[in-house]
Design a protein that fits this description.
Length: about 260
């Protein structure tokens, strides 16, 4: 099913209203004591805000889109087995550790794919009140400012963002990638890292991610002409975890070469 441009714009504006409401609720919740739990291990945190945000987003999606299938982090979505039809991805708080401990460098992310094709993505930088949003039919915006593609710099010309745990243990060639870059950083959250790449503040970002971590970022990055793949250069599996690489085209080639060597 192909949506017309005005239909895509209507969806975009509708989700922006949802995100405005979510930001207000999230900022208010940050003034109170958070309820913090763990999932897979002590570093895999979840809060009452993660769960409340996901419930609210999923309710809004189902009310708005009768054809919606939802892939979301905290268990309130569907057990999706394929990418047929309207598939929405929801990350209610991306970077929960940052949210709990630093109160910054976290995001709320939503994406829409139709028949496995990227349509729209939204990354809300909650603290800075900026939504990065758009898709291949309408372009990419920071709030209302249209973004232009970042410069196609090589790995040696820019900063690369990497998963701290995998860098520490030298996995996937991350140690060699960090040494070859002009500089490297560890942000600890997918949304803020994707933002830096699409804004041209970093030439690349790689980490192990779940679908809700990379779905929105992939829409925005590809729309801006950036390369997105797994660490072996293959297309991402939209329904399972991947070692994701998003980068300028030149840095992407540099990083793949270092990983393979």
């Amino acid at each position: 099913m192909t949506l017309r441009r005005f239909e895509i714009q209507d969806i975009d504006q509708t989700v922006l209203l949802w995100l405005e409401e979510l930001r207000t609720k999230t900022i208010a919740a940050m003034q109170d004591e958070l309820t913090v739990g763990t999932k897979s291990d002590v570093r895999d945190l979840v809060t009452n805000v993660d769960r409340a945000n996901e419930k609210l987003i999923n309710q809004k999606i189902r009310a708005y889109d009768s054809e919606a299938h939802i892939v979301s982090e905290e268990g309130f979505g569907d057990q999706q087995r394929d990418m047929k039809g309207h598939v929405w991805f929801v990350d209610p708080i991306d970077g929960t550790m940052n949210f709990v401990k630093e109160r910054e460098e976290f995001a709320i992310m939503i994406a829409l794919y139709i028949d496995n094709q990227p349509v729209l993505g939204w990354i809300l930088d909650v603290v800075n009140n900026t939504v990065y949003h758009g898709g291949p039919e309408i372009g990419v915006f920071a709030n209302q400012l249209r973004l232009t593609p970042p410069m196609d710099e090589s790995l040696a010309q820019g900063i690369v963002l990497l998963s701290g745990a995998r860098l520490l243990y030298g996995m996937f060639g991350y140690d060699h990638i960090a040494k070859a870059a002009l500089g490297y950083r560890v942000i600890g959250a997918a949304g803020p890292s994707f933002i830096r790449v699409i804004r041209g503040q970093a030439v690349g970002y790689s980490s192990k991610m779940m679908p809700w971590d990379f779905a929105a970022g992939q829409v925005l990055a590809k729309t801006l002409g950036l390369s997105v793949s797994d660490i072996d250069g293959q297309p991402l599996d939209m329904l399972s975890s991947n070692i994701v690489l998003v980068a300028t085209n030149r840095a992407h080639r540099d990083i793949l070469a270092l990983h393979k060597s």
